[in-house]
Amino acid sequence: MCWAGRMMLGTFSILLVLVQEAAACEFGPLPYRGTGIVCRMTKPAALLLNQETAQVIQAAFRNAKFPNITGERSMRLLGRVAYGLSNIQVNDLSIESSEVELKEDNAIHISIKNVTALFRGTLTYGYAGAWLLQLFHSLDFEIESSIDLQLNINLMCQKDQVAPDASDCYLTFHKLTLHLQGDKQPGWLKQLFTDFISFTLKLVLKREVCKEINAVAQTLTDFIIDLAADFVRDKDIVVDISLASDPVIKARYIESHHKGLVLYKNKSSMLSDSVFSPSLLTESRMLYFWLSEHSLSSLAAAAFLDGQLVLNLRGEKLQELFEMEDTEVQRKAVQRIFQGTSYNDSVAKVWSLTQPEISPQPEGTVVRSLVAVEVSILLAGEEPLVALYMEKEITVTVQATYAEKKLILQPVDSSVEIKVFKCTADPSGEDPSIQSFLQNMILVAGIPEVTSSIGSALTSLMNSKRLDLFDIINPEIITRKGYVIVQLDFGFPSNLLLNFLEKSL
Questions:
Q1: By C-alpha distance, which of 140, 139, 137, 115 is closest to 127?
Q2: What span, in angstroms and rounded, lies between the C-alpha atoms of 364 and 318?
Q3: Which domains does the chain have, with CATH numbers?
Q4: Model confidence band, residue 10 (pLDDT cutoffs 50, 70, 90)
Q5: pLDDT digit string, tens, across residues 263-312
Q6: What is the pTM of this model?
């Protein structure tokens, strides 16, 4: 629902998705009113994502456009010395370490230690006279550098969504050594130009590198916000993940509170007061999602209105359903219902007649709905013959797990009450053997088949949004009265970041 995802610029980009607006946005006095979804990312997740910092910083250095540097100075004995550095490129960049802190002033502080980089280019210089009238010498140069980088990223609100401000950027130079034409020994020329150039070069590096980091940060943020928006959209069904209240940044976690409204064909569910409390979530896992009963019910209602709660079974699936047990009673009931027709020439349709009612409880999520079942026999050149039609009120308690990149829905308690029964094999509806068989079949095989199909459909939908590319570790889905908590650890697939940087920068 509120879906997190990337590194650190990376770290702050994920946090930006979670914190879709910043403290500069105005909200009412009740911090959790209208909150349908809450996301919490803890410090261990930020530390994990911080490991990806090197790739982002390297991309910023590689993509920085360093302008030509020119200058001149009067020197005793030499007269006026003019110089220019051009074709500046970065090679052999490495990072020793990176640290991240979450500050309660709505800022994320990143400290990157010992960024070593080799700058290469061309040095042109000449003496005495006007710059354009002299014959200048050209040398290839290398500059060895060692830099510490401090980023203080503030979260700002722009156009109803979060924007990172990484302009608070500092570079501290521990080393800046100039080599000419590969000569590693000190000399008067090298010393002369090192003294001239160092100050100017430091200013240019700071300006261009910090500007590029800010640009990369915004590009990543836009990408992740678009990814999150797409994740919570399925055709005409959209989940509104805009903020319901100010984000909360603590030393141990960052937390955001989202509306969680479901929009279907531009019609929205109503906001309701939230039962969320920060004490419901702990800090032992990397990532938490708190989902309200209202948001889950609204999603089920939208799926119903969109005609998605329909299942058709035929062939082997139909056979498995009606031949769940090999008894004489079962064989006679099936023979009478299908009138000797093969399963391949028949189809069973199951659909919800009313909006499902969703009620999370400690034992699982309780689902109530009026469901219809229709079995039709397909006759060549004729209209299908309806051999069986039932309407039944079903109450089922479902427990959900996520394993091996699949959502598994398991019914643990079910009840069925038949409201309407029409069967060509039992027109009077007085044959207890057929109704008893159908009742048992629905409880033992029908409900598990429907829940399994819904789980598979949701898995396919999530994987189409690329969830399966992430390494989700030991996820837990916990149901309580009025809400559901999903908590997990994760491993970041760094190849996703590399692919994104290669395509986008």
A1: 137
A2: 28
A3: 42-230 (3.15.10.10), 236-494 (3.15.20.10)
A4: very low
A5: 998 788 777 778 899 999 999 999 999 999 999 999 999 999 999 999 99
A6: 0.79
